[in-house]
Amino acid sequence: MKSTLLTTLLLTPLASQAADTPKQAKPNIIIILADDLGYGDVGCYNSESKVATPNLDRLARQGIRFTDAHSPSTVSTPSRYSLLTGRMAFRIPYKGVFAGVGGPCLIKEDQLTLPQMLRNQGYATAMTGKWHVGLSFFDKDGQRITKGGVEGVKMIDYSRAIPDGPINRGFDQFYGTACCPATDFLYAFIDGDRIPVPPTGMLDKSNLPKHPYSEDNRDGMIAPNYDLEELDMVFLKKSREFLKEHAKKDPEKPFFLFHSMNAVHLPSFASKQFQGSTKAGPHGDFIHELDYIVGELMKTLEQLGMADNTMVMFSSDNGPEVTSVVHMRADYGHDGARPWRGVKRDQWEGGHRVPLIVRWPGKIAAGSTSDQTVCLTDIMATCASITGAALPDSSAQDSFDILPLMLGKESGGTVRPYTLHQTISLALAIRKGPWKYLDHKGSGGNNYNNPELKPFALPDNAPDAPGQLYNLETDPGETVNLYFKHPEIVSELKALLEKSKVEGHSALK
């Protein structure tokens, strides 16, 4: 009874505020982006999952679940660049991922971004969490730091502003980190364009959890207010603060919130309140925390009276990490890549086929699904369609409007004529209908001669082929390379890929 009364008292101000909240014409938009969460890590995508995800499952029941959605890349930095610009990162070109003081920002100052487009449409824009698209840090002489690792971090002059971060690329507010929050050379929070609490010493790993999912920490410098086990709870707190402040001060103005998670990137350091909360070990606990955070953000929207006029999109930046998949399979019978071949960094489906769930009450039919091929680059053109923004030819070069799919109003045809894929090494692939052509040998990412991955290597039925061709309709596991059997399809897809590279876009212009 006391707990119920306390909850009622705590929620009363919010409920009262919600009743007075006017409706704005354009919907609020929230993107929740998980890190290294696999297709098989979510219950509504994997009936054999060993980790319950009730909040994500509920989100899917209330909206649409895409079963053929893809991250733009098989690793973080290029995927995030592409989500924020609607443009594939191989066009820069850029390969790899940033760490420490890595930069400058991949997004040029004059390039239209998703948040800037929405800000131009009257939106308040905010980002919380992992940036990872590059930043410029300066030394005491005002020179941009180009040295990597801890040496570069030690050179930072923290009195100088960061000139090319989120608030310089379309966001009004930012609170988060430069790169991977729990495994970097720079363990410190950025608020706006500054690091208000700089690192004071090297990370002490002796008090951190020890398990197979805990060995990814770089030897970096850490700030005194930076707790590696509570990062996602800090990000949740900041996002909730933004939502509450916005509802209080400017409820008639639409908002865009990009909640960019640390979870479930290794090391698997769940918040202390979630440690031991599942029967699937530390990584299972981390997935549980991620699901809880999604639920808390949805609760906040409900409490503020914003839920009915907010479109919420949930996805992941790429497939699940090698270590988490190998150990979760062996120790708990949980497969974060199920039912696909490959993992993070691989061009095979497990490296880039990701969950994509979208909820928009009154617009998107509850419990709907779509099996059309879509990509996270499509978010930009879709948000432009929703808000009436015009996209110039110089922007969103690989973004298609998938709003008709969300609303169930497609006219029977496919939205995307084809879809491009890229790996950490800039190996490229193209998908058209059931056909997928990999313009390279092997995975394009991981080395399957590695002892950890060797047990999962499949026989190569076409070892002399310079590329790979699969029919995902008849062979979703990408087990039989049809390169030599269908040379006409190889030629068609390779020509389409080259055309896209030469023209600089895949979207219709």
Tell the overall outline: globular
CATH top level assignment: Alpha Beta
Mean pLDDT: 94
Estimate nothing, just give the exact number of structural domains: 1
- Class per helix and strand makeup: alpha/beta
Low-confidence stretches: 1-22
Which percent range describes the beta-strand content? 5-15%
Number of strands: 17
Query: What would the CATH topology be?
Result: Alkaline Phosphatase, subunit A
Question: Major sheet, described briefly?
Answer: 10 strands, mixed
Within CATH, the superfamily carries the name Alkaline Phosphatase, subunit A
CATH arch. level architecture: 3-Layer(aba) Sandwich
Work out the helix count: 11
Based on CA atoms alone, the radius of gyration comes out at 22 Å
Cα-to-Cα separation, first versus last residue: 61 Å
Q: Sketch the topology as an H/E string, one letter per element.
A: HEHEHHEHEEEEEHEHEHEEEHHEEEEH
Question: Would you mind describing this structure in some detail?
Answer:
- The chain has helices at residues 2-19, 54-62, 76-85, 114-120, 149-154, 231-249, 281-303, 322-332, 378-387, 403-407, 487-503; strands at 28-34, 64-70, 124-130, 173-177, 186-187, 190-191, 201-202, 221-222, 255-260, 310-316, 353-359, 368-370, 374-375, 419-422, 428-432, 435-438, 468-471.
- Helix 6 runs parallel beside helix 7.
- It has a single domain, classed as Alkaline Phosphatase, subunit A, CATH 3.40.720.10.
- The protein has eleven helices and 17 strands.
- It has 509 residues and is α/β, with parallel strands linked by helices.
- The N and C termini lie far apart (61 Å).
- Strands 1, 2, 3, 4, 6, 9, 10, 11, 12 and 13 form a ten-stranded mixed β-sheet that branches. The chain has a four-stranded antiparallel β-sheet with strand order 14-15-16-17, covered by helices on one side. A three-stranded mixed β-sheet has the order 5-8-7.
- The radius of gyration is 22 Å and the shape is globular.
- The model is unreliable at 1-22 (pLDDT under 50).
- A hairpin with a 2-residue loop joins strand 15 (428-432) and strand 16.
